[in-house]
User: Fold these one by one.
Assistant:
Number 1:
Amino acid sequence: MKNWIIVGATSAIAESVARLWAAKGYKLFLVARNEDKLADIAQDLKVRGADAVECFALDVNAFERHQECFDTALKSLGRIDGILIAHGTLPDQKACETSFNVARAEIETNALSVISLCTLAANHFEQQRSGDIAVISSVAGDRGRQSNYVYGAAKGMVSIFLQGLRNRLAPVGVHVTTIKPGFVDTPMTASFDKGGPLWASADQVAAGIVNAIDKRRNVVYLPWFWWIIMNIIRHIPEFIFKKMKL
Amino acid sequence: MSKPYVSWARYPYNSQQGMDLQWRTDVLPAVPSVLPQGNARSYGDSCMNHGGLVASTRFLRRFISFDPDTGLLQCEAGVQLADILNLVEPQGWFLPVTPGTKFVTVGGAIGNDVHGKNHHLEGSFGNHVTRFELLRTDGTRRVCSATENPDWFFATIGGLGLTGLITWAELQLKKVPNSAINLETIKYQDLAAFFALSEESESTHEYTAAWIDCLAAREKIGRGHFLRGNHARVTQPKPAAGKLKLGMPIDPPLSLVNSLSLRAFNALYYNRLMQERTSATVHYDPFFYPLDFVHDWNRMYGPKGFLQYQCVVPNEVSYDAIKEMLQRIAMANAGSFLVVLKVFGDVPSRGMLSFPRPGATLALDFPYQGNRTMQLFDQLDDVVVQAGGAIYPAKDAHMKAEHFRMFYPKHDSFKQFKDPGISSSFWRRVMEDNA
C-alpha cells in the first residue's frame, strides 16, 4: 500500500497503471484537465480496491498552479511515496513546422511542464530522503526524425533532464525511472493504422511500468524489444540517417 | 497485436475501419453507417460493418459500482468478463452466466445474449441484466430495464448492437460458496448415451456440456466426453490457476488445422481419459475457458480464417437431427477441433432476436476451404431448417436471408427499434435484399 500522485491520469496508459495500483490498495491523487473524466476514473478505481482516490483538475500548462497542486496532494495523501508523470500530446508535426507558436506550445506541454513538476517532487523527496519519480518519455526522444522531431525534441529533453535528476538524487535514496514506450494502442494514437508485432496494448505497457518502478529500473523500454530497435536507430551514421525516411 | 476491429474468425473480412469511444458521455460519430462493437469476439460478420465504421467500446472499461452485499454490479459496456471475475471472485461472487471465453465485453454479452454451460438452470446472459443505458446515433439516451423502456430493453438484448450503443449496464451476479468446480468427466460411447447423461444431470449438476469426437463414424457417432460440474463447497481448498499461458504471436502461412492434425487431435483427446469416469476439483479457468489459455488461438487457422457453425434443434427431433449433422460432417471428412454439444433448458430468453431456445445446441469450427466449406454448411442448414431449429448470428458468416427470417420470426417487429444510423455486414446480408 503506497501513496502516489498520477499526473495525466486520464491518459490510457496512466489509467491502466492506476487500475493495477488500485487493486493493490494504493491511495491515489489524480491530476488531469477534465474534472468529469477524473470523476469517472476515481469511481472505477474505488470499486477496484483503491484505499482512497482524490482528484485535482489542472491544465499542466498553468505552471503557476503546480505548487498548489503538489501542496494539495501532500495534504490529501499525508505522505507521498511517488509521482507518475504521464501526460502528453502527440503534436501535428506539419503544424509545428509552419508555426513556431504551435511548436513552443507542444514543447511546453510535453517537456517544460514535466520539468516543473519534477522539480517540485524532487525537492520534496530530497528532504523526505525517499520517493520515486517515474516519467513517461518516449522512444521518439532517442533520435530526431523528420516525421515527429518536435515531439522527439521535447521527449529527448525530458529523458536527459531525468538522467541528471537521477544522478543528483541517487545519494539520498530517491529513485527516478524513465519509461520509453513504443507504439501503444491508445486513443492518443487513433490516427495510426494499428496491428502487427510492434503494437502493444496500454495494459501490457502499464504492467511493464509497475514492474519497472517496483524493481527501481533506471531506463526501461516497453515492450523490451524497443531497446533493440532504438539501439539500431541510434547507431545509424548521420550521413546515412539524414537521407532516410523515418 | 492483432488488428483491432476484426472479428474473431477473421472471415469474411480481414480489415475494418473503426473508432473508439473513451467516455460514457461520448456520442456516436456522425457518419452514414456505424456499428457498436465490443472486443470483436463474435466470429463472423455480426460485429463487422465492412465499408462503414465500427464504434468500439474497448476503452469504455470502467466499473461504476459494486455492492458486495447484494452482488449488484454496474460498469461500462467495454468491461470484459475477465475484469469482473478478477474483481468479484475474491469477494465470493461469480458470473451468473458465462460463455466459453472471458474476453468478451458486457455490451457484447448483452447484444448477443450469450449462454453458457448452465443454460438449463440460469437461462442466458440477458436474464441477469437489470438495467443499461442505450445511446442512439441521434444522441438520445435511454435507461432501459424490464419496467423502464421495456420494449427497448428486450429489443437490445440479443439485438446485435443494432438498436444503439450500450454505454453502461447493471448485472445481478451470483453468490457462490467456492469458485472452483467439482468436475466429473464421463467418457461415453454414442449419441444416445449423451442424451441420457444430459437428462440425468440436469437436476443434479449446475454445469453440463460435452466435447464430441467429430471423426467417429457409424455406431460410434456422437461419442465423446461429458463434463458436468457444480461449484465446490466452501470448505474445499481452491486449486491454483495455471500460470503457463501460450500465445500465437504470428500468423502461420497456412492453417495448422487440417484433416491430419484433426484426426490425431480427436483420437488423442478422446482416448486421453483412461477410465470411463474421472472426478477432480478444478480452477474455474480451465473449466469455463479452456481456449483462453492459448492467446490469439484464432491465428492457428492461418490467413484465410475459419468459420464457426452453431445451431440449436428442438428436443423432439434433436437426436436424429444431431446424428444426421454429425454424419454429414464425417462424410465430408471436414472435421472440427472442438465440437461442443449441450442441451439448453426452457428458461425463456428475453431478447426479440435471442438465439437460445429449448433444444440441443451443437457448435463446431472449420478452417475456411472455399466452396467445400460452404457446401457442407448448406447441407447442415438443410437439417436445421427441417428440424425447425436456428443458427447463432454471433458465430455466423454464412446464414441465408430466408433462413434468418425463419429462425427469428420477430425480425419484422425488431426493425422499428433498429437505429437508422446503425448497420452491420450481417444485417445487410440477412435483411437487405440488395446487399
Note: The CA atoms of residues 93 and 176 of chain B lie 6 Å apart.
Number 2:
Amino acid sequence: MNETLIQMAYLIATGLFVFSLKWMNGPETARRGVLAGVAAMAVAVGGTLLNPGILVSNYKWIALAVLAGTVIGVPLSWVPLTAVPQRTALSHAFGGLAAGLVGVAEFYVKFSEGGKGLGRFEVGALCAEVLLGFLTFTGSLMAAGKLQEVKFIPSRPVTYRGQNLINLSLLGVAVICCVLLVVDGARFAHLFPVVIVLALLFGVLLIIPIGGADMPTVISLLNAYAGLSAVAMGFVMDNKLLITAGALDGSSGLILSIIMCKAMNRSFANVLFGAFGQVQAAGGEAEKRTAKSCTPKDAAEIMENANLVVIVPGYGMAVAQAQHRVREIYDELTERGISVKFAIHPVAGRMPGHMNVLLAEAEIPYEDLVEMDEINPEMPQCDVCLVIGANDVVNPAARSNPKCPIYGMPIIDADKAKTVLAIKRSMNPGFAGIENELYFADKTLMVFGDAKAVTGEMAKHLAGEGEGGHRTVG
Amino acid sequence: MKLIRLKGGALAGAALAAGVLTGVAAEAPEVVHPAGKTSTEYIATLFVFMLATFVGLDVIRRVSRLLHTPLMSLTNAISAIAVVGSLLIAGQQHGTGDWNWINLLGLIAIVASVTNIVSGFLITDRMLKMFKKREVKKS
C-alpha cells in the first residue's frame, strides 16, 4: 500500500517537473513553472518520507539537516545578479557532492551486506554516479572560485606541458578501476576509494586550464554532469523519479552547452582541452594605430540624432554594474522617439542568458532584448551601435581573418552600423587577447572610462543636466 | 541542425544498447541478477531514461533564450532531486545500531540538496519577477 502511494507520488512529481520546464518557454508562464517545480519537489520529498524503511528516531536528524540546508540556501538566493554565475557553479558543486556521497554510502551499505544487491549493472551505475558526482563537486568549486576571483585560484587559464595527457590518463585510470569493480566488485572493492580520489582530482585539473570566456560552456556542461549523476543514482537505487528528473536536468545542460559551443564555433573537446588566449596575448601588433575617441557628451549628442540605436552589452557592463545607467539612457532615448534595442550574443557574460537577467533587473522590457540572429539583418539600418564592455563578440576579425583564434565565431555585426560608440576602460585587448579591428575603424569613436561612470554621464547629458562634463582618459 | 543530428545519434545509440541488452536477455530469459531483478526490469529502467531524455531535449529546446539563466537555476533545483536518495540513506538502518557513519553521509547529502532546492527555486523566482513587458505607451 505504502509502496504504491510512494510510486504514485513519484509519478506525479515527474509530470510536474516536465510542466515546470515546459512553462519556462516564455516569460509569461515562467513563474508558474517555478511553482510547479516546488510542488513536484514537495510531493517527491513527502512521498519519500512515507518509506517504511526510514526509522522514526532518525526524523529529528533529517529535520535538522533540512533546516541547515534552508539556513544556507536562503542567503544564497539573495546574491547580487552579477554573482549569479558563481552561485550557479556553487550549487552544481553541492549537487555533485550530494550524488557522490549517496553513491559512497550505497556502495558500502551493499558491500557490508555481502555484496547482494550489487549486480554488475548497479556497480557500473555506482561508478558513474561517484565519478560524475565528485568531479562535478571539485570542478564546480574551482569554477565558482574562478568566477568569484578568489585569490589563490588563478582566473586566467593555467596550462602546462602534457596537461591533456595527464588529465586523460587520470581519467583512464579511474575508468579502468571502474571496469575492474564491475567485473568483480568484491575482489576489487579496495579500488573504490581510488575512484573517489581520482574523480576529485580530475575535477580540479579539468577546470584549471579554462578561462572566463569559456565559463558559459563549462557551467552548462557541469550542469549536465550533475543531472547525469542523479540518473546514475536512480539506476543504483532503482528509483524512476531520480532517473526522469536527472535526465531532464542532464538534457538541459547538454542543450545549453551545445548552444554555447555553437555560438563560439568551437567543439566540446576544444573548450575542454584547448585553452586559448595564451599565445596571441604575447605577440600584439607592433605598429601603433590610433583610435578616435570622444567624450560622453559628444556620444550623447550623436545618439540623440539617431533613429535606431543598438546597444551591445558584454561582461564589462556586468563588472561595472552599469545596467541601471544603461536603463536611464534607454529611457531618455525612447522618450525622444528613438528606437533602442539590445543585441544579446549567446556567450556574452559568464553564463547562458547572463545579460538578459541583468537588463531585466534594470527593468528594461524584454521585448527589446534581441538575439544575435534577429538583430544582424537590421544592423545596416542602425545609426548608432553602442558597445558596452563587449569585445570579442563584436570583433569583425571573426568573419574576415582566418588566422585569428576566434575565426568563424558568429558575431554581432556592430561594424555594419553607421556609427559605433565603444565604451572601454583602455585599449587593452579583451579576454581572448585579440586586437579588435572595430576600434580602429573610421566610423568608430571610443569613449574611455569605467562603463558605469561613462553611461551615467551620457544619461545625464541626455537628460539635459550635463554641464561640460569633459572626462576623457587615454 | 546539430541538435537533430545529436538526437539521431542518441536514438541510434539507445536503440543499439537496447538491442544488445534484449539480446542478452533473450539468451537467458529467466536469469535473476544478484540485485534480485531480471534483465527485463533493467531494460524498463533504460526505457524510462531514454524517453525522459527525449522529453527533456524537446522541452528545453523550446525555452526562450531570454530565460537561460533562470532555466539553469531551476534545473539546479530540480537536480537536487538527489534529496530523495539522501533521505533514504540518512533515514534507514545500516548495520546493527540505528545510527552510523553511513547515516552521516546521508545527512550531509541532505544539507547539500536542500541548499540547492531552497536557493535554486528562490533565486529563479526572484529573477523571473524582473522580466517585464513594455508598459503601455504613454504617448
Note: Residues 65-139 of chain B form one domain.
